[in-house]
Amino acid sequence: MNKKNDIEVLIGGIKYTLSGYESSEYMVKIAAYINGKLDEIQQNIAPGGWLDNESRNILLQINIADDYYKEIDRNSALIEEKNQADKAYFNLKHELFDVNEMVEKLSAQNKALKDELAAEKKKSEERLSEDYKRHEDELKEANRKLKEELDEANRRLEEEIEAGKKKIEEAEQKIEEEKKKVEKTSEELEQAVKKNRELEETIDDLLR
Asked: How many distinct structural domains can be found in the chain?
């Protein structure tokens, strides 16, 4: 169990003893926050004006409540931003999965086409070999066309695969950017939650 700390602070020019399980630095920070709010109230009073203690305390509580609810709104905005980033991250992962699936499909089609062309070439060579002497010119022309078709088919498939790989790289880069954005938003959210907790503890201390 944490040790209870007692510390003397000045709030509004009056010495108070704060007691709690928080650190001395934290309680000094709370006192400084309240003094800052009191200074803001004093600066907004017209020259020569005066506020009784009750009015000043009410204004102080209003200002603290204003900070508190602004922090709540900011937290809500950060949470929404994080949710949007998470959604974008999920969509990019889904897109990356689709691209990978497309590349695998294209690779399978490329292999099947190569196998089919190789088998067709073999059949053609076997068929033409019987009449090679009589149809030597026809054989050379058929092989040339077959090679051109194979080269063209391979070129098209390789271009599609390269395009798919490029799309994957772009998707991965987007995922990394969204990931960094999520991490940054999470850090801001943690800081906002911490500040919100401190405000709630401040209000609790004031209401004790």
From this structure: 1
